[in-house]
Write a structure and sequence with these properties.
single chain, 409 residues, alpha/beta, seven-stranded mixed β-sheet, 17 helices, Spore Coat Polysaccharide Biosynthesis Protein SpsA, Chain A
């Protein structure tokens, strides 16, 4: 079949050779049959959508403007977009399908395939597993997962993210840098200032995967499988596994990156109720990841290296295996501020990485954030002790509308 051009050639003009570097970044060449007059898929994009009828249309409109599709097509590479509508009870499926139908008739770039996967069961983990292991093209080199309520504010975001992975074979995963829609506001309120300061401190984390949008090499992605009770922090679990060679080596944060200049917009949580609910969800997720990683480290190295298969087997033998580990972890006398290491200090460490006057200006956000974290941990502890782990409160937020979407109305 010959060599398939990749995004490396698109962005740099150089031929793409075999990737050297750490073995978790390698993947065997796939042998597939490509239909005549069609392109092999280089990039598979999965959009996580749960009752997103207000945001899915604007999101797809902004996604369509990404330069990466044309660049891939110029070099004979294709892209697929799969809307993963999981457990939707609104018009998400119909709106996404209408948008895709419009793409096929009005967007003349070869090699772009679209589909809506209407998954009856709600749940991000199940949707992720089905996308990576069932829906995405076998030959794809990259798997990109994004939320349905973000907006691309520049046309080269995905181009930059994939370009970084192509240029640096040591990397296994890359994200963009999310920007809150209130950034740049002339007169932000107190809540908005605290929210923006919290984002600044989060940006000091080394080797960060952003859960709203990240891209993994397909060989890496397919060595993952998300247990049913993992929670909603898949990005944290993936980062921990990737940076430790699937828990077989010391941590190396340089294996994941947030690409400078690649951005998207998102609507932040601002009300106290929404912030608390979001923090509770994160505390549940981080506790679950802590418990899962602790268990995985006790397994033989062979099982850790083949992590996806190992997790599938554990789930098949006993669907409640992770739930029981969580129950044992949170049972009294464990205190709620000890759900996972660093609860009391992680925000202050982020503050300490800031320089100069920013430490002073961001102190209120660190103090308020720490107080909210403690309350959220208490709520998370009570929730987990009741034998529950799936928590994803639906918050109604105003959809961000890109200019090209508004002009089409």
């Amino acid at each position: 079949m010959g060599w398939i051009p990749t995004l490396y050639g698109v962005l740099t003009g150089w031929p793409h050779g075999a990737a050297a570097g750490h073995h978790i970044c390698r993947q065997p060449a796939s042998r597939v049959t490509i239909p005549k007059n069609d392109f092999p898929i280089t990039l598979s994009i999965g959009i996580m959508a749960w009752n997103e009828e207000d945001s899915i249309g604007p999101m797809l409109a902004s996604l369509l403007g990404q330069s990466v599709f044309g660049l891939l097509a110029e070099q004979g590479g294709g892209c697929e977009i799969v809307c993963l509508a999981n457990g939707c009870t609104d018009r998400t499926v119909a709106i996404a399908q209408k948008a895709f139908d419009g793409m096929e008739s009005g967007y003349h770039v070869r090699g772009l395939r679209t589909r809506v996967a209407d998954i009856p069961e709600p749940g991000r983990n199940n949707a992720w597993n089905r996308f990576v292991h069932e829906f995405s093209a076998r030959e794809t080199q990259y798997v990109c997962v994004m939320d349905a309520d973000i907006i691309f504010d520049r046309p080269d975001t995905l181009e930059l993210v994939l370009g970084e992975l192509e240029r640096n074979p040591h990397l296994c995963g890359a994200s963009d840098c999310p920007i809150k829609s209130i950034a740049g506001k002339a007169h932000p309120s107190l809540r908005e200032r605290l929210s923006l300061s919290a984002s600044d401190m989060t940006g000091t984390i080394e080797g960060k995967l952003n859960g709203m949008l990240y891209c993994l090499r397909s060989g890496v992605a397919r060595n993952f499988y998300q247990p049913r009770d993992l929670g909603a922090t898949d990005d944290g679990f993936f980062k921990a596994a990737i940076c430790t060679d699937f828990f077989c080596a010391p941590s190396d944060p340089s294996r994941v990156v947030s690409v400078r200049g690649a951005t998207h917009l998102y609507e932040p949580y601002l009300s106290l109720r929404d912030v608390l609910n979001n923090q509770k969800r994160q505390m549940i997720g981080q506790t679950t990841v802590h418990v899962l990683i602790g268990h995985l480290k006790t397994l033989p190295e062979r099982d850790r290296a083949n992590l996806g298969a190992t997790l599938r087997q554990l789930e098949a033998r006993d669907p409640e295996w992770l739930r029981r580990l969580i129950d044992a972890h949170v049972a009294p006398p464990r205190r709620f501020w000890l759900l996972f290491p660093g609860i009391l200090v992680f925000r202050w460490k982020r503050l300490g990485r800031l320089r100069g006057i920013r430490r002073l200006t961001h102190f209120p956000a660190a103090a308020v954030g720490s107080a909210i974290t403690l309350v959220a941990c208490w709520q998370a502890s009570r929730f987990l002790r009741r034998g529950m782990s799936a928590y994803w409160p639906k918050t109604v937020r105003q959809a961000i509308l890109p200019a090209e979407y508004l002009s089409s109305k």
